[in-house]
Design goal:
Layout: E1 5-9, E2 16-20, E3 25-27, E4 33-35, E5 40-45, H1 48-66
Bound molecules: zinc ion (ZN).
Zinc ion is lined by residues 10, 12-13, 15, 28, 30, 32.
Amino acid sequence: MTKKYIIFQCTNCGRYLYTDKQHKTRQCPCGKQVKIKKAKKIGETKKPKEARQAIRKLQKEKSDTQGFFKYK
Ligand SMILES: [Zn+2]
């Protein structure tokens, strides 16, 4: 049985997250219990490693363009 992982954006803070496709919700570090169905899906992959790499790339692009994830 092959697993799939969905990459999506938190509906509250816009963070990129990933979760097992079988899951219905995922707790974001911001505290929001994100419903996968309602979240903006970015993509999906079979490997969690790929999901993590994709997210790192997305976060970096986002912080470069918006400064959203930069910390003082
Ligand atoms: Zn969040």
